[in-house]
Amino acid sequence: MPILPEPLQDRQGRTFPYLRLSVTDLCNFSCQYCLPDGCTETSHKTAIGLDEIRRIVTAFAILGTNKVRISGGEPSLRFDFMDILQTVRNVPGIDTVAVTTNGYKLDKRVGNWLSAGMTHLNVSIDSLEPAMFQRITGHNRLDEILRGIDHAFAMGLPKVKVNTVLLKGMNDKELDRFLGWIKDQPVTVRMIELMETSDSIDFFNRHHLSGQVIRQQLADRGWTQSIRADNAGPAQEFWHPDYQGQIGLIMPYSKDFCADCNRLRVNSQGELQLCLFAEQGHNLRHLLQSDDQLPLLIHRIQELLNLKDDKHFLDYGLTGSTRNLSIIGG
């Protein structure tokens, strides 16, 4: 039998069972914190194809990755999105296929995604107040997104995660509204601190709010922090015995945020991103052209992991090459 390579581990001893795979940088929303003017530049037409996706996921699976999150931009804008789901789900060793979406036409699409192999769903909802949702995203689609989540539950999905970017002066007073929503349904609302990118410095300075504010509010109401799963994302999750749902907090400016990093990223052009805020990506696309290149691809991924820093440098105002989060999927 062939000798399998060692699971991915960096110089700090961190392991990486979780891959975030962006399949496009195209997005059809115009969220104020990401693409306030809409998607004006895109490499959508040159995004990695199905065979390239299969090869990169196969390499990571051999290296111990069991969870793949398909993201964008908005990944469902790919005409072959269903094929992408099926391709990833069929890779041996991958047991979790998650999708992060803005929820566009979710009520009409989620059933097909589940049939194609999606196992977990993350939906961006930055406000439960329709006027504020439209102000933040540029779209009046909150009702169809909420219907889509209801459809997902009706079709057997056991839980859904919702991503909410915390914005001072906009949605920062909605905790009670979100808590009321998750009282009787298994939704985890993950409140994400606004992160500075090179395109959003002024917006960041006006609207950044520390997640510690929400953490204290939860503590005051009797919420308790949960134990984090090995392949879970970066959220600190909290539970309460009176609620079916949970609250998660993603606080990238908090101390030791990167200490238990467990995920790597590949963008839609086949570049390995060692950190969301790295100065550059590392091209793998030339190693995705043939199944015969798999040993070289695996070796290159292992080699590049030695370059991963022990932390990001957001607290120094260094945002790397990330102009906005749609480029590499957040």
Describe the structure.
With 330 residues, this protein is an alpha/beta fold. It has a single domain, classed as Aldolase class I (TIM Barrel, Alpha-Beta Barrel). The chain contains 9 helices and 12 strands. The protein has helices at 50-62, 81-89, 106-116, 130-137, 142-154, 175-182, 201-207, 211-220, 294-305; strands at 18-22, 67-71, 96-101, 120-124, 160-166, 187-193, 224-225, 236-239, 246-250, 263-266, 271-273, 282-283. A 12-stranded mixed sheet has the order 7-8-9-6-5-4-3-2-1-10-11-12. α1 (50-62) runs parallel beside α2 (81-89), α1 crosses α9 (294-305) and α3 (106-116) runs parallel beside α5.
Offer a few descriptive terms.
TIM Barrel; 9 helices; alpha/beta; single chain; 330 residues; 17% strand; 12-stranded mixed beta sheet
| Radius of gyration (Å) | 19 Å
Overall CATH class: Alpha Beta
Proportion of β residues?
15-25%
- DSSP summary: helix tally: 9
User: Considering DSSP H and I runs of 4 or more, what fraction of the residues is helical?
Assistant: 25-40%
**The CATH topology:** TIM Barrel
The sequence of SSEs as H and E is: EHEHEHEHHEHEHHEEEEEEH
What's the gist of this structure?
This protein is an alpha/beta fold and 330 residues long.
